[in-house]
Amino acid sequence: MQKLFYLAFLLFFVSSCKVQKTVQQSSNAVQASILQPTNFIEQQARLLILDKPELLPAHVGISLYDPSAKKYLYNYQSEKYFIPASNTKIFTCYAAMKNLRDSIVAFEYLLDEENITIRFTGDPSFLHPDFEDQFAYDFLKANAPKITIVAPRFNATAFGNGWAWNDYDADYSPERSPMPIYGNLVNFGKNGNRITVTPKAFKDSLVIYSSTEDGRYAIERDKDQNNFTVVKSNRPFIGTTIPFVVKKEMDQLMIPLLEDTLKRVLNYASAVAIDQPNWKKFYSQSTDSLLKIMMHRSDNFFAEQTLLMVGNEKIGIMDDAKVIDTLLKSDMMGMPHKPRWVDGSGLSRYNMMTPQDFIWVLNKMKQEQPWERIKTIFPTGNTGTLGGLYKGYENKIFAKTGTLTGHVALSGFIITNQGKELIFSIMVNAHQSSAGTIRRYIEQFLTSVINEN
């Protein structure tokens, strides 16, 4: 019995060794196929991105697609989910290009001989310093002795889901609102020893506790109130821009701000019993002028308000969650991997998207929109957020950057020296290097593809 047991054990051991050897050989073969580049693009991806010491501990996804041949030229972890940062604006841009007309709606209105009734629709350009022409403001100033503002169709929070709470006073994260004014920002400038405030309505909200004669001070805002304080600083004050708190009820702040600007008293109504078809639309800026700034500057406020305006047009309400759900079930149905999309700007770390998702959206954009329009809206080499990068490759790359602490992304279009138009998406998460270093690695890879093909 003991001999039979020993023989059975020996046979099992030998068999196990063969299985293990076979598995190991298979594993080695897979690793070899991964480690040994099979073409130029894979070779460059490994040399210039994947094998860099700074990126070995990070999560990297790369996808390169040829739309004319309808095939991928290279994929590396492109089916995995990444935090896209401001690459999210590509989704928002596509939704706006598809659903907004050539001009954005400043507000909806009803006009008679004695009164104009206004319902705002989220237009972020209203009295924004980026836009010299203010047609909506001129219209309000010139028409009707009586103006009534009615509650908008708005169901969104001031901050997006998953935004960093301590960015409340950062100029890149103004609060979302149905009636933006001055970009929902207060600008503090300097004129000699005097601090200038725009809008002037916030002048009385500024408290100066100490002397400003030496010029070394800063301005801070209370977290939940529009109380601004001058505090001592080691650095000279050169000006700053701080978001103001948007009160939930429009008559608490936004309407008084508009009254101060128009120099007239406005009426406010929480509702109005008039059917939707009777409302007229007043158009302000061209849609592409807004989208160009959004993409070139990576403007978070414009992106958030753009998504809300898409909601107002597509589903009749400014509701980011609802319009995203609608877009994913309609215009953007069919993506390779269902994304988790939660805001318009990419400030949220809850966003989760794959490189192949971006390839899909960019390809749809290219199929549906004029190429000249895309080239105008997207930054090219050494412009916008690509400033200092891709010098000499102007009109060879059109792409959107994305940056959060520990995360870098770049997605868009490249045109090779042989005239091939390719779509790419490169995403790096959980790195501990500098964003600038990673951008240079990506630049080296993409320019090598442009030069070789």
Descriptive overview:
The chain is of the alpha+beta class. It has two domains: 40-98 and 289-452, Beta-lactamase, CATH 3.40.710.10; 99-288, no CATH class. Helix content is 33%, strand content 23%. It has helices at 2-35, 40-50, 88-99, 135-142, 254-262, 287-296, 300-314, 320-329, 355-368, 371-377, 435-452, and strands at residues 59-66, 71-76, 103-111, 115-120, 146-150, 185-191, 194-198, 206-208, 216-221, 228-236, 240-243, 267-269, 280-286, 397-404, 407-415, 421-429. β15 (407-415) and β16 (421-429) form a beta hairpin. The longest helix is centred in the first third of the chain and has 34 residues, at 2-35. The N and C termini lie far apart (71 Å). Mean pLDDT is 91; it is low at 7-36.
Give the helix/strand layout.
Layout lengths: L1 H34 L4 H11 L8 E8 L4 E6 L11 H12 L3 E9 L3 E6 L14 H8 L3 E5 L34 E7 L2 E5 L7 E3 L7 E6 L6 E9 L3 E4 L10 H9 L4 E3 L10 E7 H10 L3 H15 L5 H10 L25 H14 L2 H7 L19 E8 L2 E9 L5 E9 L5 H18 L1
Parallel strand pairs: 4-5, 5-12, 8-10
Antiparallel strand pairs: 1-2, 1-16, 3-4, 3-13, 6-7, 6-11, 9-10, 14-15, 15-16
Based on secondary structure, the structural category is alpha+beta
Q: CATH H level of the largest domain: which superfamily?
A: DD-peptidase/beta-lactamase superfamily
Provide mean pLDDT, rounded: 91
| Shape, principal axes of CA atoms | globular
The secondary-structure element order is HHEEHEEHEEEEEEEHEEHHHHHEEEH
> Which fold name fills CATH's third level, the topology of the largest domain?
Beta-lactamase
Record the strand order, biggest sheet. 2-1-16-15-14
Could you tell me how far the N terminus lies from the C terminus, measured between alpha carbons in angstroms? 71 Å
> Mind telling me which CATH architecture of the largest domain this is?
3-Layer(aba) Sandwich
Broad CATH class of the largest domain: Alpha Beta
The share of residues in extended strands comes to 15-25%
Radius of gyration (Å): 27 Å
Number of domains: 2
Helix content: 25-40%
Please provide the count of β strands. Answer: 16
Indicate the low-confidence ranges by residue numbers: 7-36
* DSSP helical segment count: 11
Instruction: Describe the largest sheet.
Output: 5 strands, antiparallel
